[in-house]
Amino acid sequence: MPRILGAAIVLLLGCRGAPPGTQEAEISRMVDSLRPVVERATGLRFKGPIRSAEQSRDEVHQYVLDHFEKEFPADRQEGLQAVYTLLGLIPDSLSLKSLLIDLLTEQVVGYYDPESKILYAVRGAEPTALRFVLAHELTHALQHDYLPLDSLVQMKGDADRQMAAHAVLEGHAMIASILAFAPDPGILRQPGFWQMAREQTLSATSAVFSRAPLALREELIFPYLNGAEFMRWWDSARAGVPLPTAATLPLSTEQILHPARYAAGDQPLPVRFADSATDLLYEDTLGELEIDVLATVLRGGGEVLTGTPIGWGGDRFRIYRSSDGPALVWYVAWDDAESAERFGRGTGARLEARQRAGYRTSVEPMRGTDRSTVRVVIAPTGWTGWQALPTIR
Known about the structure:
By secondary structure, the protein is an alpha+beta fold. It has helices spanning 24-42, 57-71, 74-86, 96-105, 127-144, 149-153, 159-181, 193-203, 207-211, 214-237, 253-257, 259-263, 288-299, 337-353; strands spanning 11-13, 51-55, 108-113, 118-122, 280-284, 312-320, 327-334, 359-365, 373-380. The longest helix has 24 residues, at 214-237.
């Protein structure tokens, strides 16, 4: 599943707030007071002043709409809707755009905009919640002094890599905001802390979040919680280096979920389509996280199991237009034959068992490839592409 929240994940969905509005001068003073706190928590120094401003909820809503339309033009929205529904991650009746706009604006307290380099606070936010969120967003502003934050947010064509980069940014900011206010920094090292944080996050659901499909809920919390766990590992493994550089950022959600893969230099295998892009609607990657989520959805729900590497090597999918509906072609390269066979017996078999009116699903191992590869096709029975399926190199 492509990272549909990726382009807007810089908005921190925090606590609700209702008291009278905060004046911009007060916000500026709060930001100034938090600067040294964030610097101590991260071990980094700001390279310049931070601009801040106040916005109404209506203004935030408009920002999200404008940002969404810019990052997700109509054809991309259509392609994302298609891959979600064809894989069974959301019901056909659900409008992704409407749900995501609601998710991103429901509880926003503050955000950092990397394009304007302005930190915004929402008018009427509860002061305690606002202070915590500003520390988080100040960390993003600080990251922008050391990383090309704007280009990372706008990364196209490799959603799995984009999600990995977001996980570093959000995980780093999550740890910094906790350390800024925690009486005991050792809390981050307590056994089960992040599992407890995950459970509390899922239990403290908002109205929109609680009705969102499992896939979107998992995607929303992954950068914060799994990203924080990766950055905690980074801190212990890369002592004295507070943050990865643009050249050393993780390249996949597999590396975020399993830091040993990152440490070993296990990089994703580029998978590219070899045929022409006739009738192409959308193309991107899924990645290990989304395969784990897909496996959970097809099993009927429950906890998303990410503790054990699945042997993912790389993948790529395309959505094609057709008169009978969208067609999905997805290739997954695996580390070995056993991993490919395990996918085929489990997730692949469950995909084939699903019945979609007017559609046919095919999951089969590919022959003559350098790496064990599985091809998944979910397309209308009358799709002309069945006669000569797209190939990869």
